[in-house]
Design a protein that fits this description.
Number of strands: 21
Largest sheet: 7 strands, mixed
Distance between the termini: 16 Å
Structural class: alpha+beta
Oligomer: single chain
CATH topology: Aminopeptidase
CATH class: Alpha Beta
Number of domains: 1
Strand content: 15-25%
Shape: globular
CATH architecture: 3-Layer(aba) Sandwich
């Protein structure tokens, strides 16, 4: 994918957004970072230090965004049950804004402010799905250049913002705020999403610093002069922290084939490494790190109203207590080149349907495809064979799937003798991703 000027892509909404002709610089938001912050609240909540920590974190949380229920969906509950103690799961959406407004520091320059200000675009969007039995977790990354139907969205100032039958996915935030991103993902997947948050650039830097950096594997050097600060990382193991970690997650030109899809798989390399450090690297036993991570998270997110209670954060964190790295799966929402625009993508319908069914049926998934365009698994003995027709000839653009809640198991599901619909699903090989247990390496853009 190539970046094009975005001035013509302004969507009407309550806040002005300016997009210049500079190379795009986008936020890399990681769902597992927020989850680490949630876990932090649990582990610091002991004794007198914990009392202050919880009070301080609670007073750092910003005013929540009220999430509206979509037509045909039940109202989103405001009194959140004990997620970890009941047979219930979690759907939580994180939208990473590219806006430089109110960030200060290096983002105060005229060039940075011209690149994006106001609400910004949701250039990184991830959906966290925790299964009802808490035995599996999936994080779905949505390509920013995906062309989809954006539904009518509630206007933060009252009324309704008209939707579009065919629009770029990453304009949802500037069009109608967090509610609009949630509504769009709900329409695509068929899920109700009661938890959501917007995170900014500073949050990524602060949280990577709070855990003392994340060690990532590079199969080849990664250089990118379009990030701020520029990247110049050698092949091998690199521990990245602060603004360098942010640049790594934002990098498009420096990884894979230079596309946004390559950037997603690079982010999954980082996410899996972060998850391993949190679970196996001692972060959970270090109250100082954990508290710093929790504070970094709440200082830099704008949450939905359902996430403003620290107790809710604890409950969500506890839902992942016994999940295990092998059962934490990161996938990219399946997409193919838009036949009307080679710089955009559209959903790959059959694969998207399979993924959506697994989400709605609350089934764990098994990956059969590759690790993505900018990632490789050095332990893999063979590479999956290309799937014929994965990049189809130009046809009428694919429409995003909008499934009703399925009542039959998804195709490829492992038989479930309990009858609870909990069998695992083998995802089509066109869906790329990895588990948190896979120690993958990023491929630089040579």
């Amino acid at each position: 994918m190539t970046d094009l000027p975005r001035r013509h892509q302004r969507a009407r909404g309550p806040e002005a957004v300016r997009h210049g002709r500079l190379p795009r610089r986008r936020g890399g938001v990681a769902a597992m970072k927020l989850l680490a912050a949630l876990v932090a609240v649990v582990f610091v909540s002991v004794g007198s230090v914990a009392a202050y920590a919880v009070w301080d974190v609670a007073h750092s949380i910003k005013t929540g965004v009220h999430l509206e229920a979509l037509p045909g969906h039940s109202a989103i509950p405001q009194d959140i049950p004990n997620v970890a103690a009941i047979p219930g799961g979690v759907n939580l959406l994180l939208a990473g804004t590219d806006s430089r407004s109110d960030l200060g520091g290096i983002y105060n320059s005229a060039d940075e402010q011209d690149a994006s200000s106001g609400a910004g675009n949701n250039d990184v969007t991830m959906l966290l799905h925790i299964a009802q039995d808490h035995k599996s977790m999936m994080v779905v990354s949505f390509p920013r250049d995906l062309m989809v139907a954006i539904p009518d969205c509630p206007d933060p100032n009252g009324g309704t913002i008209d939707g579009s039958s065919y629009a770029q996915f990453n304009t949802a935030l500037s069009r109608g705020g967090l509610n609009c991103v949630v509504a769009t993902v709900s329409k695509m997947t068929g899920l109700s999403i009661p938890f959501a948050a917007v995170i900014n650039f500073n949050g990524v830097s602060a949280m990577s610093s709070a855990v003392g950096g994340v060690t990532v594997c590079l199969a080849s050097p990664v250089t990118d002069d379009y990030t701020n600060p520029p990247l110049d990382l050698p092949a091998g193991e690199n521990t990245i922290v602060g603004d360098v970690a942010l640049s790594f997650l934002r990098s498009r030109h420096g990884v894979g084939d230079g596309s946004d899809l390559g950037r997603i798989s690079n982010q999954q390399v980082f996410l899996s490494a972060l998850a391993r450090k949190i679970v196996s690297g001692g972060v959970l036993s270090n109250p100082v790190q954990l508290y710093a991570l929790a504070k970094a998270a709440v200082n830099n997110i704008t949450p939905s109203e359902t996430l403003t209670n620290p107790t809710t954060l604890v409950q969500i964190a506890l839902a992942l207590r016994d999940t295990g790295l092998d059962n934490m799966v990161f996938v990219q929402y399946p997409a193919v080149t838009d036949p009307d625009d080679p710089n955009r993508v559209v959903p790959q319908e059959s694969a998207a349907d399979a993924l959506n069914q697994a989400l709605v049926n609350d089934q764990p998934v098994k990956l059969t495809g590759s690790t993505g365009r900018a990632a490789e698994d050095p332990t893999a003995t063979t590479s999956p064979a290309p799937v014929p027709g994965a990049e189809p000839s130009p046809v009428t653009p694919a429409a995003p799937a909008t499934p009703a809640a399925p009542t039959t198991p998804a195709a490829g599901a492992t038989p479930d003798p309990t009858g609870t619909g909990g069998g695992s699903v083998e995802l089509p090989s066109t869906i790329t991703g990895q588990t948190a247990a896979q120690q993958t390496c990023t491929k630089g853009n040579d």
